[in-house]
UniProtKB/TrEMBL annotation:
Needed co-factor(s): FAD
InterPro entries reported in the protein's UniProt record: Cbr1-like_FAD-bd_dom, FAD-bd_FR_type, Flavoprot_Pyr_Nucl_cyt_Rdtase, FNR_nucleotide-bd, MRET, OxRdtase_FAD/NAD-bd, Riboflavin_synthase-like_b-brl
Protein name: Ferredoxin-NADP reductase
UniProt xrefs under PANTHER family: NADH OXIDOREDUCTASE HCR, PROTEIN RFBI
MF annotations from Gene Ontology: 2 iron, 2 sulfur cluster binding; oxidoreductase activity
UniProt entry keywords in alphabetical sequence: 2Fe-2S, Iron, Iron-sulfur, Metal-binding
Gene3D superfamilies: Nucleotide-binding domain of ferredoxin-NADP reductase (FNR) module, Translation factors
Iron-sulfur is among the record's keywords: yes
Start and end residues of each FAD-binding FR-type domain: 2-103
């Protein structure tokens, strides 16, 4: 099992009013595979500890990583990380963890990334790792979110992300003014239109709340995608596993 190591907050930025990206400095950190996660542990003065798992948002890099944490009201860890964790403060992390929900940068196959809410975090790590490594694999990203105010990574996840990466934003509660699609749940038609067709044999990564993941995975199978090429990751409140 990976050991716990100290991580200091180097910088931060707000993605939404309730979601904060944490840039952590971790001496000795060797990097990670895109799609992996870490455990984060807090220790109180009386010795009480609480830990949660969070997906890594950044591309692989030595001695640093980024996490994006969504506030979970009533949670033990996310309220501190979102509201109180200050630059210079330390937590403990353990990882990187996970070997199934990861993208192999050496694979040339097309990739479909489908994220619901904060499920877009590990998928963004894959997009960033593609850019870092210069991979030529074609990416299509389908990002389901409630409202424009809930959107993470605004400067990166947009229709003009870059050559080889197409992004589709599906708003479910409130759509931006002038939206032709309007506000509705991600549909089979959306998956068929904005993902790769099954005959292209893409690798599909689906991350989000359990209901979202199950619905999307079933729709992909109905569209003819090989279940063995559909990888899923589910999370609880606040993006915590």
């Amino acid at each position: 099992m990976a050991r716990w190591i100290p991580a200091a907050l180097e910088a931060d930025r707000w993605e939404t009013p309730t979601a904060r990206t944490l840039v952590l400095s971790i001496p000795g950190w060797a990097g990670h595979r895109p799609g992996q996660h870490v455990d984060v542990r807090l220790t109180a003065e009386d010795g009480y500890t609480a830990e949660r798992s969070y997906s890594i948002a950044s591309a692989s890099a030595p001695e640093r990583l980024e996490l994006t944490v969504q506030l979970a009201p009533g949670g033990e860890v996310s309220p501190y990380l979102v509201r109180d964790f200050a630059v210079g403060d330390q937590v403990e992390v353990r990882g990187p963890l996970g070997g199934w929900f990861v993208w192999d940068t050496a694979e040339p196959d097309p990739v479909v990334l489908i994220g619901g809410g904060s499920g877009v975090v590990p998928l963004t790590s894959m997009v960033r790792e593609r850019r870092r490594t210069g991979s030529k694999a074609l990416f299509r990203v389908l990002y389901s979110l409630r409202t424009p105010d809930d959107r993470y990574y605004r400067s990166e996840l947009k229709p003009t992300t870059g050559p080889g990466v197409d992004v589709f934003l599906a708003y479910t509660r409130t759509a931006p003014e002038g939206s032709v699609r309007g506000a509705k749940r991600l549909s089979v038609a959306d998956l068929n239109t904005h993902g790769f067709p099954a005959e292209f044999a893409p690798v599909c990564f689906v991350c989000g709340p359990t209901g979202f993941v199950e619905t999307v995975a079933d729709a992909l199978v109905a569209l003819g995608h090989d279940p063995r090429r559909i990888r899923t990751e589910r999370y609880g409140s606040g993006g915590e596993r």
